[in-house]
Amino acid sequence: MQAVQHYGFYVAAFVLALGALVAFHEFGHFWVARRAGVKVLKFSIGFGPKIVGRQIGETEYLVSAIPLGGYVKMLGEDSGEEISEEDKRRSFSHAPLYKRFAIVAAGPVFNLLLAYLIFTVWLATSSIPLFVPSFADLAPTVETVIAGSPAEAGKVKSGDKIIQIGDKHINTWNEMTEIVKRSPGKPLPVVVEREGRTESLTITPGSRKETQSDGTEIEIGQIGITKSNKALLDSKHLILAPWDGLRATWGWTKLTIVGIWKMITREVSADNIGGPLTIAKISGDAATQGFSNYIFLIAILSINLGVLNLLPVPVLDGGHLAFFTLEAILRRPVSIRSREVAQQIGIFLLICLMLYAFKNDILNVWPK
Known about the structure:
By secondary structure, the chain is of the alpha+beta class. Helices cover 49% and strands 20% of the residues. Among the domains are: 96-134 and 237-368, no CATH class; 144-226, PDZ domain (Pdz3 Domain). α2 packs across α6 and α2 packs across α9.
């Protein structure tokens, strides 16, 4: 029964976080469409069959069965849709290019805006600094080796960069600590980068007890190395919070963009791509650690959602923006056939990405 409640809490945390992100994203499309004079037919949180819905004015507001996204349906959005002459003035497809561009861009922009609002309120009201890292801050580079620790016994030195544990290549400090935590008392073959060369070491993590969110105690490994946290942002005065919130939003946005690029160039393993189970786990973990951690996670996920949606992949908002950019260059819309083919390719790529993410979920999140 306790396990059911535990997983139920994680599911609830996931649905609430994702619902907030989707609602804000779709509200961006909805709000700008209304301001641009385009008629919005439906505003849905979720996909698939309708669970509940209500018509308010000219828009039907829905909660749908599949809580993995949402949509705003506008008049004239579908290709081939017949529109009367009277309705054309309120049709998305007949709106000026700059209005269509603004409507589509508004979703990702509102995700970034949500993160900015969370960061700004945090900095204005909390005494806890914000964590705003660069890739250098996340790197698995040892700064201090504790005297008498397993790391010292294994001949780890300050300045070593841990690049491999067993057959797992290490890109971030968290990847390293997760393996160490799972390996109390187990000898680990470790490869470090030291002064331009590699060294092979063996480190056996010590053990300490840690209390889980459900009250159970487990043993986790530790090796006795530290890394100072330089990636902290704190507003010195209330009036500086809006500016510092902007700096925090840009810092996390830049980190997300660089991370995606490093995955494309294979500098960072694509095994870091997570799907619904990963998001559910980190949402639940954050929620068990307190409201502030949970809200912080929502801000980070919102930035990720905004950046990913701006990628020039057909079906995503970025794909539509790419078509609009081509339309501006060519002085004519991209043909319906070309868009259909591109969207089919985009759907195929997204399905492949979702399957890969789900595979990572099974390997990394599912209880072993």
